[in-house]
Amino acid sequence: MTYPLTQPRFAPAEAQALNLTVIRAEDWPALSETHPQRDWLRASGFEAGLGELRLLPGPGGILGAVAGLGSAQARRRQRFGLAKAIAALPEGAWTLQGDLTPAEREEAVLAWLLQGYRFDCYRAKGRAGALLVAPEGVDAARLLAMAEGEYLTRDLVNTPAQDMGPAQLQAAFADLAARHGASFQAVVGDDLLPGYPMVHAVGRAAAPDRAPRIMELRWGAEGPALTLVGKGVCFDTGGLNIKPSNGMQLMKKDMGGAATVMGLAHMIMTLGLKIRLRVIVPSVENAISGNALRPKDILTSRKGLTVEVNDTDAEGRLILGDALAWACEEESDLLVSMATLTGAARVAVGPDLAPYYTDDAAVMAALEAGAVKGFDPVWRLPFHDAYESVIEPGIADLDNAPGYGFAGSVTAALFLRRFTDQRPYLHFDLYAHSPSDLPARPKGAVGQGARAVLGAVQGLWGV
Predict the structure, then answer these.
(1) For a surface tag, which of 337, 424, 440, 453 has the fewest beta carbons within 10 Å of its beta carbon?
(2) What is one GO biological process annotated to this record (predicted)?
(3) pLDDT at res. 295
(4) Do 460 and 133 form a contact (C-beta atoms < 8 A)?
(5) Which of the following is catalytic: 9, 105, 243, 276?
């Protein structure tokens, strides 16, 4: 398959379009006195609630539509709420009208693009949906690039593991590089042993056609250097510390970090940002066979640090350790890792927030601003130095799964930080999945953190 399977798009500027007028709930009482179809709207019970839609009838059919943007409280509680109305519009071209702030208009446009996502390659295809004529006053190219990157991430994560093993992820990564004129290389199978021993150890039990690998994309010749590292565990059985059945149900998404950095890379390259981009993805299937990694094995990493394996189900941090060590052999202005790493992060902040770690105040400020601009909420968790001793088992330099019982996301982040020699370092512990249908985010794969990082690098470096 070639990803993304479908592309977000705007309607042609010259298309015959109907108007969708968006109204805030607090503005509706006054507007209801002057709207040309006020009688119809009142009779229908329209109150401009978030996502509420009314088609406006006329003698020749539909004249247009009005949609509610809800109250200020409703807008704070639900991102992309307008997507509910957009999804119910008849097919065809539409324009976006209404007295909206610049941020409200950008959120509405991004919601429109994201709600058009469908993952239907394994079923009958649904209807095409309504298309938006790109409105004036927004950065349409940036919003479209963000939606394209999100579509790519969602497609990669949604694809079942039978069709998205390490080799297929490599093919998608190589295709992304080729589309943007980037260089690409991969080290596969036993060739990993000299330089990436932990990647090899985690992935060696998989079938030969699903052999472990580490991949690298490079793009751009000038500007600040940005390195992205994404966890690419294409399926996680837990290894010999096997997961229970319900624990495997979502494990096709364990390459969500890789999918997210690929989506982010697409955004950066599509927008032509003046940066030097490097993307590293270690990819494995954590399988079970006679040569599988065992509990209490001790691995020597690329960095030279030894790691006692106390749980073969804590494999993501092992492959990221080698990848981060490789990343740090070359200086960059910002190093970012993204991974579906711990259940503890979900317990802490739930599925809708992307928790992150950094000790750099400038990066934190830029990321928080980028999250607001990209409608991509994030939340900072601490690199708490007092827990460093927890990840030191005594028999080796590091423990991949300390039996501490607390702060599982924090201790995992501290483990990864041991493999980084440079600052600033930014780490995301992602979920990459929406457990239910939400506006512009259907149940299944969802991007997290990428739009926030895009805004952060643009804010930090003025690119």
Answers:
(1) 424
(2) proteolysis
(3) 97
(4) no
(5) 243
**Residue at token pair 């008849």:** 90
What fold is seen in the domain 144-461?
Aminopeptidase (3.40.630)
For 137, counting Cβ atoms within 10 Å of its Cβ (0-12 exposed, 13-18 middle, 19+ buried), the class is exposed
Task: Reply yes or no on whether 127 is catalytic.
Answer: no
Strand segments (E) across 136-182? none
Whole-number Å distance between alpha carbons of 242 and 22: 51
CA angle centred on 199, ends 195 and 204, rounded to 5°: 110
Is 284 in contact with 238 (CB distance < 8 Å)? no
Q: Are the CB atoms for 84 and 20 separated by under 8 Å?
A: no
Q: Please tell me whether residue 440 adopts helix, strand or coil conformation.
A: coil
231 is catalytic: no
185-203 pLDDT tens trace: 999 999 999 999 999 999 9
SS (H, E, C) 398-439: EECCCCCCCCHHHHHHHHHHCCCCCCCEEEEECCCEECCCEC
What is the spatial distance between Cα 419 and Cα 320, in angstroms, rounded to a whole number? 9
Could you tell me how many residues make up the chain? 463
User: What one-character-per-residue DSSP string does 248-305 give?
Assistant: HTTGGGGGHHHHHHHHHHHHHHHHT-SSEEEEEEEEEEE--STT---TT-EEE-TTS-
Q: How far apart are CA 55 and CA 21, in angstroms?
A: 10
Residue 282 and residue 306 in contact, taking contact as beta carbons nearer than 8 Å: no
Q: How far is the C-alpha of 236 from the C-alpha of 255, rounded, in Å?
A: 9
Tens digits of residue pLDDT in 64-112: 999 999 999 999 999 999 999 999 999 999 999 999 999 999 999 999 9
Q: How far apart are CA 115 and CA 46, in angstroms?
A: 23
d(CA 94, CA 85): 13
Q: Which CATH class is domain 17-138?
A: alpha beta
Tokens of residue 395, six digits: 């028999």
Q: Residues of CATH 3.40.630.10 domain(s) within the chain?
A: 144-461
pLDDT tens-digit map of 346-369: 999 999 999 999 999 999 999 999
Write the CA distances from 31 to 28, 74, 94, 198, integer angstroms. Answer: 5, 19, 22, 64
**72: CB partners within 8 A, 6+ apart:** 26
Q: Which two tokens stand for residue 255?
A: 């390459």
CA-CA distance, 314 to 321, in Å (whole number)?
12
CA distance 460 to 367: 9
Q: 307: closest CA among 462, 189, 451, 202?
A: 202
